């Protein structure tokens, strides 16, 4: 049998180049696979949304190295985004249902029901969702200044290939005024503050709604469905599930969905890079993610040379990992 | 004529880029050079490093594929009994596209560490193995009968026939088999990297650039690198054929 010397020479050149020490290796995985792969030892750590963090911890597959609260306190996370051409009455109906659902979740009196819904929505055990809910702050609209940090950091890390000017805005302020559009939200809360049982007019419309796989941050969406808030305003919801926010933005781009729950980072990233014409009409949650590591890893420096999974590049979790790595003087590969 | 062909291609490219979001040639050329020298900020690697990762996978898996395919092809071509066992199996498995094996590969290798990587290597193995075994088999089977009969008249044993007649006669088939196998293996790894999470590699690079968005020049640069490496591999083997079997 003939072995080409060329192949051997190429191997000799290539082999050393493939061995890299001292850097954190990043892999992309759907969060539902992360827990399993951590258990099997295929990965050493992961960054995910709840309830996957709590699932790994409660089952003893790993421990939390840093919560997203530790990395960036009170950071905005998931939001509700809508295509820019969606009718205002429909947006009002959606935001109303979302606000009602968020207030339902935050009302202590509904604790048991919320846990029940969370268990159904994520398919995880009660013990897991109870633990997970402790780390999520359900909100109605993100803090705009904090949200802008996504943009600043994405720009700094060279994720963004375009500027607001390329998208036809005069400057960043004008871009954010259009992108973080809280006008409908303000109207809804104003009406609700006057009359708690106010219901906007029925729209009798079908809305295609995107959301992420078993993402507890987006519980308000499930609560709105179960508590019939969408029905109350005449909305027929067609659900579409995505594995991460970047893919959901692809869904917006390909016009598969009208409205969607997704992370603030992918929403900003693809709004700018691909000029996907969406706006943020409401917030869903702050915090609620964490870096989970194998039990034998005890400090950030131990992550050097280890394999860590994220749901995708440009996701909130990728963003948090980059902040964490930067803070601890590590490098990503 | 070659210059004319190049000019026509470039003109066509400019024309298409004028109407679509595909970046024009000069922009891609600049980005290609940039990515060869500097690390792309998201994945933190140069285009060369991604190409090395893909090439490394292809060479490992193809070497294993050829180490099995070449002897198997020769024995099948040389012995009727072996042929009747092996060739029906090869003919049934050969039309299955390498990528169709991906889900099954995950199941087969689930117990091994690095299932994803092993599965990718397996997909390249499948891609490289079948074209090689078929080409080698064809050339080994077409050894002129009279040559073998003449050798037997001179009391040559089976080993001598294999060593001095069948093998040299199959050399062309072996080299062509390796060349074609590498080509198919190269196509398979790019697709396998796009499907699974690979950390690095040209397929992974292209898909990640698409996901993050706004990076058409990077995507086209990655595609150009795939084409360039495929071309170089093919070129090396054609030259090698000329050196090793000059009588052809």
UniProtKB/TrEMBL annotation, chain A:
Residues 220-331 form the SsuA/THI5-like domain. The keyword Magnesium does not apply. One of its GO terms (cellular component) is periplasmic space. Keywords: ATP-binding, Nucleotide-binding, Signal. SUPFAM superfamilies: Periplasmic binding protein-like II. It is found in: Periplasm. InterPro entries: SsuA/THI5 (IPR015168). GO terms for molecular function: ATP binding. Belongs to the bacterial solute-binding protein SsuA/TauA family. This is Nitrate ABC transporter ATP-binding protein. It comes from Geoglobus ahangari.
TrEMBL record, chain B:
It comes from Geoglobus ahangari. It holds the Pfam family BPD_transp_1. The chain crosses the membrane at residues 55-78, 85-109, 121-140, 186-207, 219-238. GO terms for cellular component: plasma membrane. It is a multi-pass membrane protein. InterPro entries: MetI-like, MetI-like_sf. Keywords: Cell membrane, Membrane, Transmembrane, Transmembrane helix, Transport. GO terms for biological process: transmembrane transport. Belongs to the binding-protein-dependent transport system permease family. Residues 51-237 form the ABC transmembrane type-1 domain. This is ABC transporter permease. CDD domains: TM_PBP2. It is found in: Cell membrane.
